[in-house]
Design a protein that fits this description.
The protein has helices at about 5-15, 20-35, 35-40, 50-65, 70-75, 95-110, 125-135, 145-160, 220-225, 245-255; strands spanning about 1-5, 45-50, 75-80, 80-85, 115-120, 140-145, 165-170, 180-185, 230-240, 260-265, 270-280. It is of the alpha/beta class and about 280 residues long. α1 crosses α2 and α2 (about 20-35) runs antiparallel to α4. The chain starts with a strand and ends in a 6-residue tail after the last strand.
């Protein structure tokens, strides 16, 4: 038998490449034992039996080579929701919650009732589900070209009890025909091909298609900016996440396609993270 405290100490020493080795160790041990962190802290001397220890060792070995915690345990919190994640989709990140904040502010500011919202490249569905959860009156379309991502988004909507999310499978805006929306949101691929960040940290394990935005990182954002004006209602808004050094370029892209009043918002770290703009001719 091995005590909880010893297992955690050994794991912390192994997770040398992590920025949060203690937290990682606790999360993985909780997952292996099917206990919560309060139990670990209350019972540091509790013995861990061989089957549970073997399960933890398997999880710890994956983390020791850098595999993201979210993929190991199979879920990630986003907007206080429990989002299932797999290696087929991008791991939800806290900074992406700014997209949700901006979207909700627009809906409130315009006094929209039963708004139609489109999330392009939904992945796990985290943005769409957060919006649908906050606004049960909204009709949210979660669009992704990946079949596995679309299935995952559907499961996440069901798991979180958000029935007003419609998952649609297809490339960019193609499946939508002439449908128009009050709001289009997206967290598209925006890392430039060959950027060192693609080969560091969690990104090493995430799907390249969800990260790689082409030679300048703007290919997906360019597609969205060109198509969005044809799918926005009068007064509608486009909100897109992007890299910290892309704010000016994204504002220029939006202006080139007729979108107006482009503004870039900062995330919690003070980094340019989200740019929004209005449908052509919309009052601001």
């Amino acid at each position: 038998m091995t005590a909880v405290a010893q297992v955690l100490a050994d794991a912390r020493a192994r997770f040398t490449g992590s920025s949060s080795p203690a937290l990682d160790a606790e999360v993985l041990l909780c997952h292996a034992l099917r206990r919560n962190r309060a139990w670990l802290h209350a019972w540091p001397e509790a013995d861990i039996g061989p089957p549970d220890l073997a399960r933890f060792e398997e999880l710890a070995a994956r983390r020791a080579v850098g595999e993201p915690i979210a993929y190991i345990v199979g879920h990630k919190e986003f907007w206080s929701l429990d989002i299932e994640v797999t290696p087929d989709v991008l791991i939800p990140r806290p900074e992406t919650e700014l997209v949700v904040e901006c979207a909700l502010a627009h809906i409130r500011g315009r006094g929209l009732v039963e708004p139609d919202v489109l999330d392009v490249g939904t992945g796990s569905g985290c943005i769409a589900i957060a919006l649908g959860h906050e606004r049960p009156d909204a009709h949210v379309v979660a669009l992704d070209q990946s079949h596995t991502a679309a299935e995952l988004a559907h499961r996440n909507a069901e798991h979180n009890g958000v029935p007003n999310v419609e998952v649609v499978e297809g490339c960019w805006f193609a499946p939508l025909g002439a449908r128009r929306f009050d709001l289009v949101v997206s967290n598209p691929p925006y890392v430039a091909t060959g950027d060192p960040h693609l080969f560091q940290g969690d990104a090493r394990f995430e799907p390249v298609a969800a990260l790689d935005g082409g030679p300048d990182g703007l290919c997906a954002l360019r597609e969205i900016a060109q198509a969005a004006p044809h799918h926005l209602r009068d007064g509608g808004m486009l909100i897109a996440e992007h890299g910290g050094d892309q704010g000016a370029a994204v504002r220029a892209l939006f202006a080139q396609t007729g979108l107006t009043g482009a503004e870039t918002r900062l995330d919690g770290a003070g980094i340019e993270r989200v740019t929004l703009a209005y449908a052509p001719g919309a009052p601001q």
